[in-house]
Design a protein that fits this description.
Length: 263
Amino acid sequence: MADQEERSRRETRILPAVIGAGVALAIAVGAVAYAAGHYGERTTTVTTQAAGLNTTAASYPKVSPAVAAGAHTFVQFGCVQCHGMQGRGGVDPAVPALTAVGRSLSVAQLTHIINHGLGESANPTQPYMPVWGEVISKTQVSNLVAYIRAGLPPVADAQSVPVPAGQGAAIAGEALYVRYGCINCHGPNGLGGVPNPLSPDKTIPVLSGQGFRQEFNTDAKIAAVIRSGSVIGRAPIVSMPHWGGILSDQQIAELIAYLKTLK
């Protein structure tokens, strides 16, 4: 009788422990299953998002190689800085948008305007269309015309060089020198070399060296020529745009800071 009572007491003590262990095991199994399930959900979400990003990156309209090249030339030569992104205008009242030009002007008319410019202005704050015929090749002109006549569609990676902020005026000016197409005429590091047949020295002026330093020996003189450009406007003389109506005083000061770093 005493033995039976002792066994009963032991079972009473063991049973809660067994039940507790079972509950703990069940909770642990559930937690692992929950974590595994949600880990799988997170992985699926990331994969889905990655696929979505790829879809967005490939959302540009399909264009011909000529139109794509024209879009890049439009950015490279600073056309975008006057006519706006995709030729939408809005930069300066004197510079027209190009979105309707492709439907109103013929290939021959557009080619002539790019090569020979469009008028000239004595007002240095009013931009005008410069002469590009001696700077841009026939192929590049043809691509530009194709891009304009296609309606100036968005093209992947046809983006202007960004201007770094907080890294000093000279660094900003170096980026502006590329962004606004100065490099295409005045060359890397302002070394020049682009032909200008009817000019006295037959080339576009250099922006470095002792000759430049002596002629433009103050910031005011450099700023004045950036603002006013060279008002010639008749091919085959290459003309420099009026940047006074496009560039801010700060941007001009940054360009000057960059030019001062050149040889």
